[in-house]
């Protein structure tokens, strides 16, 4: 079973991962060395149409080298590493998270629909959908700040998040939870 955790910045993805990472039956998927990243990026080209669309969108959204590296190489490669081995694998910030990074292009519903259609999918996507007030409080607590708090970028990310919720509403692979605690219950019930 492969579960990807998805949510806006400040929704609790990292908090959830830190709470479940020590469970014996769950492993968190990480990519460490550049060689490993390259290997799984090449493996991901088995979905050639998606990789071409992903590359095109990444290039069109290209604003800084780290964003391109994270979206095209790291996040989209985690699913292919998760497919290796057995057991429950959890991906924090996988390919679905790229939809929030490509805010200039994927804010249009038909393009987001196409991207989601082509996107190789894990068994489940756990969507952390907390209130905006809670999310803002979480962002204020962060030691580091990034451009995710910029008003224009935040508005675009929220629009994409809302569209993604709408487009996946009737797909059983997507599970929406309203708090980290509810997500923990989901993992506890899944173990049972």
Mind explaining what this structure looks like?
By secondary structure, this protein is α/β, with parallel strands linked by helices. The chain has one domain (2-191): P-loop containing nucleotide triphosphate hydrolases (Rossmann fold). The chain has helices at residues 13-20, 34-44, 48-61, 65-82, 98-101, 103-106, 109-118, 132-141, 151-167, 180-191, and strands at residues 2-7, 26-28, 88-92, 124-128, 174-177. Strands 2-3-1-4-5 form a five-stranded parallel β-sheet, with helices on both faces. The longest helix has 18 residues, at 65-82. It is globular, with a radius of gyration of 16 Å.
List the helices and strands and how they pair.
Elements (H helix, E strand, L loop, with lengths): L1 E6 L5 H8 L5 E3 L5 H11 L3 H14 L3 H18 L5 E5 L5 H4 L1 H4 L2 H10 L5 E5 L3 H10 L9 H17 L6 E4 L2 H12 L1
Parallel strand pairs: 1-3, 1-4, 2-3, 4-5
Helix pairs in contact: 1-10, 2-4, 3-4
Short summary:
The protein has ten helices and five strands, in the order βαβαααβαααβααβα. It is of the alpha/beta class.
Annotated CATH topology: Rossmann fold
Q: Which parts are unreliable, with pLDDT below 50 for 5 consecutive residues or more?
A: none
Number of domains: 1
Number of helices: 10
Keywords for this structure?
192 residues, alpha/beta, Rossmann fold, 5-stranded parallel β-sheet, 56% helix, 12% strand
